[in-house]
Amino acid sequence: MDDHLFDWNVFRCHYDVPENLRKAVHYGMYAIHLFCKFSLDSAHDVPPFGDINLIVRSEIHQIVHGVRMALDCKKWAIEDYLKSFDDGTTDVERSQRFPPNPGTHKSGLPFDEVHYPCTFVDKNGRIVWWYLPAIIRESRWEKICDTVFSLSRACPRAFSRPRHISSADFHASFKIGDQFAQGQAIMYPAGYFEGDMDYDIPFPSRSFRHADRYFGFEFLDMLETDTMAIIGTVLALTQPVLFHVSLEMFEKLHQGNVSVGQPWVFHEVLSRWASPFGAYTVFNNCDHPRHRFSFSHPSSSTLYLSIGDPQHSRFVSNLLARDFHFDPGTVCIGLASCISHGWSSCGAGEQATVQFTTCGRLLDETEPYRTIFPMTSVELAAYVDYILSDCEFQT
Question: Which domain of life is it from (predicted)?
Answer without folding.
Answer: Eukaryota
